[in-house]
Design brief:
232 residues; alpha/beta; Rossmann fold; 9 helices
């Protein structure tokens, strides 16, 4: 990725938007299905996020950077009574998920394909039951650390849109980013790390389907950490 430092705000949700050409079925899904699932941020957000969905839901969760959508597809099937908002700027990942969601008949999903910060600023206060951020870009070079999505400003955004008791889940195979996240959470008064033992962050989340990126990390000898924080 070219270094466009300064072209986007610090902490913005950077992503590689274009990749390989889409397959015909993916392209059709992007043209026909994505418009029916996409959020329109030019319109005011509803006071009740449940009103975004065509089916009744009793809670709404957000996944930021869902990649190929393995986890989002899995969770939206496990919890049909929950609404899910997924953010992914990479067109290939979005196309893969839109096709899979269409084939699975998912009605409890809404999507956004741009900067997650704009979405977070659009959402109403205390409307989310959870936020998932799995394997975000670690931006390993020190001069790029300000691009990491976990930062003080974004944790303020999380705190505003999450209701008390909501969970922020963060998974990464990069030890420095894990420690970075724990440091930032540790100084934020609205979040609490709920781990009671090492197994609480070494073991995957309940019902975790795994992802292709995670499998690659394990093959290359990197050990994932699964952190869970509660909004006080």
């Amino acid at each position: 990725m070219p270094d466009n430092e300064g072209s986007r705000a610090a902490g913005a949700f950077f992503g590689r938007r274009h990749g390989k050409p889409l397959r015909p079925r993916q392209a059709s899904a992007m043209e026909e299905v994505l418009p029916t699932l996409s959020l329109d941020l030019d319109r005011p957000a509803p006071a009740r996020l449940a009103n975004l969905f065509d089916v009744p839901v009793d809670a709404v969760r957000l996944e930021i950077g869902f990649g190929g959508g393995e986890h989002l597809l899995h969770e939206s099937g496990r919890f049909p009574e929950t609404g899910f908002i997924g953010v992914e700027p990479f067109i290939g990942g979005m196309a893969k998920f839109v096709l899979s969601a269409s084939e699975a008949g998912r009605k409890n999903v809404r999507l956004y394909d741009d900067d997650a910060n704009r979405l977070l600023d659009w959402l109403p206060e205390a409307g989310l039951a959870g936020i998932d951020l799995f394997y975000p870009d670690p931006w390993p070079k020190k001069r790029h650390w300000k691009r990491r999505f976990v930062n003080d400003e974004n944790l303020e955004r999380f705190a505003r849109v999450m209701r008390p008791g909501a969970r922020f889940r963060f998974a990464s195979d990069i030890a420095h980013y894990v420690n970075w996240t724990l440091m930032h959470i540790g100084r934020h008064p609205e979040f609490e790390w709920v781990a009671a033992s090492a197994d609480d962050w070494r073991q995957p989340y309940e019902g975790w389907p795994g992802t292709r990126y995670e499998a690659k990390a394990k093959r290359e000898g990197r050990t994932p950490a699964y952190l869970t924080f509660v909004r006080r």
